[in-house]
Amino acid sequence: MAEKIKLRETVGYGLGDAASSMFWKLFGTYMLFFYTDVFGIPAAVAGTMFLATRIWDTLFDPVVGVICDRTQTRWGKFRPYILWMAIPFGIMGVLTFTVPGLSLTGRIIYAYITYSLMMMIYSLINVPYASLLGVISSDPKIRTKLSSYRMIFAFSGSILVLVLVDPLVGFFSGSGGNAGLARGWSLSVMVFAVIAILFFLGCFFWTKERVKPIREGKNSFREDVRDLWRNRPWWILLGAGIAALIFNSIRDGAAVYYFKYYVQESEVFHFGFIHTSFTLTTIFLVLGQAANILGILFVTPVSNRIGKKRTYLASMVLATVFSLAFYTLGKGDVVWMMVLQVLISMCAGSIFPLLWSMYADIADYSEWKTGRRATGLIFSSSSMSQKFGWALGGALAGWLLGFYGFKANVEQTEIAQHGIRLMVSFLPAIGTVLSVIFISMYPLSEVELAKITGELEEKRKD
User: Fold this and answer.
1) For the segment 123-182, what is each residue's pLDDT rounded down to a tens digit?
2) Domain segments of the chain: what residues?
3) Alpha-carbon gap, residue 402 to 157, rounded angstroms
4) Which is nearest to 347 in space by CA: 262, 248, 444, 276?
């Protein structure tokens, strides 16, 4: 019988994703905007950099997974990396959002170096964190519950960033022009870095690794890769995850441009005493994160009733329909923009706890089928799909802006505005359609998983 998980451990596990997601949201929503409008490099150059650095980082994830599977410490296989990488994570986060006093070529080189190092450190802390779900409990329902709580904390961390980033940047920038804006971004990210470090430490101290392999023998890397290569459910989730992240990253990356250059927003709430304001962009993004949490709250009871696969399919089909509807909105339809953002985000938020829980199920399936457990390698694939989908989505966002003739900090042409509208509607919907196609082929039902879990528990008792 699986051990019950106390509230403190649930909170501790959630803190880890709150920390990661603070920076994930900064990267996904503001990184391209920061590079074009603050850092001062062309959108197409930034898009190419995203693809190059993230593909390398994607390939790095399985290496981290293999290393974690072979780690033996008194704290377990995965928790130590959360402790060791917490401070480097915060430092590199600040450096990534720092504008050096260099030429354009020098700034591009600096961006390549800092962003690449940041993504490598992100892998070294996030792959072990994701893998931790597979060893906290062997019960699939507890994993879905933990995954749901994890995503609630993740989106709460994102909301924290989205609510505070404009006020903090405004406060630290003052009236210093471009130099002040650059300083404002660096100091604001420093605040988020300190919070992230504390959250990671809480995750390390409040969680525990329980699930042990049925066989402790050391597997060869070749055996692990061969097992993964033959794991059909893993391939299916990999494709579904990549497609879902393409959907999210294009929408997130385009949102700031949509309101700045298409809606041509004005300030909504202004706070003179700290020289800052909340804009439609902030409200739109915060509403999206809050709606993500609503989707997560529904996903556990719904998936327990109709199954993970059917819940995922329904969410992605609805997200497709709502995304296509977004294209019909004019620049004055602000209320409908917010309504559709809520509906789309509820659907998008519900799929991610399902994906993480299904990766844990796949780790059990692989061990049941082969007799060898490679939790880190399998969970690294989830991070790999995130990074690769994010790489493609981020690169496409930069390239599409360049293709439609986007120029930073000037009035956009009709063609550029049309392209930005497509980037929050039709183009990301391609990702949701692909995700539906992949997940429709997922073979592991709840009945089969119950059988696999029971047989593994019996083997661990022997």
Assistant:
1) 899 989 988 988 888 777 787 788 888 888 988 998 899 889 988 998 898 776 778 899
2) 9-210+217-461
3) 31
4) 248
* Distance from C-alpha of 282 to C-alpha of 126, rounded to nearest angstrom: 26
The pTM score is: 0.71
Q: Which two tokens stand for residue 371?
A: 């007799």
Q: How far is CA 412 from CA 261, 302, 427, in A?
A: 7, 44, 20
Structural fold of domain 9-210+217-461: Growth Hormone; Chain: A; (1.20.1250)
User: CA–CA distance from 13 to each of 9, 76, 120, 150 (Å)?
Assistant: 6, 15, 21, 7
Structure token digits, residue 44:
């197409």
Q: Which two tokens stand for residue 367?
A: 């061990």
**Percent helix / strand / coil, the chain, rounded to 5:** 80, 0, 20
Nearest Cα to Cα of residue 146 among 288, 300, 350? 300
Task: Please state the separation of Cα 122 from the chain's center in Å.
Answer: 11
Residue pair 394/50 in contact by the 8 Å Cβ criterion: yes
CA distance 366 to 83: 28
